[in-house]
Design a protein that fits this description.
The chain is an alpha+beta fold. It has a domain at 9-68. The chain contains 1 helix and 5 strands. The strands form 2 sheets. It has a 3-stranded antiparallel β-sheet with strand order 2-1-5, with helices on one face. The radius of gyration is 34 Å and the shape is rod-shaped. The structure holds zinc ion. Residues 14, 16-17, 19, 34, 36-37, 39 line the site of zinc ion.
């Protein structure tokens, strides 16, 4: 059963979300969309290629799995620790009330 299909499957990594995924190699265009983040990009590096999608898929899955475990090891960098310092605000707020002219002009019309 020789397959007449000359479709080549390639493994590409999204530069945006770093997800490895299987795509069909196109002769006309090297543009592709990430299936995860939908980022449109051009093929920059082919990590694997072959006529059997299953082989490429296996490669992609093992790559993503190892990448995931790496992420788990690193855990999330706690760079954004929020320090909620209580700023003591004096209850007495001093309003710079300028003393307005209290002088009432009393016109005595007698
Ligand atoms: Zn992506």
């Amino acid at each position: 059963m020789a397959s007449s299909s000359s479709t080549v499957f390639i493994a590409l990594q999204c530069f945006h979300c770093s997800t490895m995924q299987v795509k069909q190699k196109k002769k006309s265009s090297n543009k592709w969309n990430c299936a995860v983040c939908n980022q449109k990009q051009s093929v920059r590096k082919v990590f694997a290629q072959g006529y059997k999608a299953k082989d490429i898929r296996t490669f992609v899955q093992s790559f993503n799995r190892s990448r995931k475990s790496l992420d788990d090891d690193q855990q999330w960098l706690q760079a954004g620790t929020l320090n909620h310092e209580m700023e003591h605000v004096d209850g007495e707020s001093e309003f710079p009330n300028e003393l307005n002219n209290n002088k009432k002009t009393i016109l005595s019309r007698w």
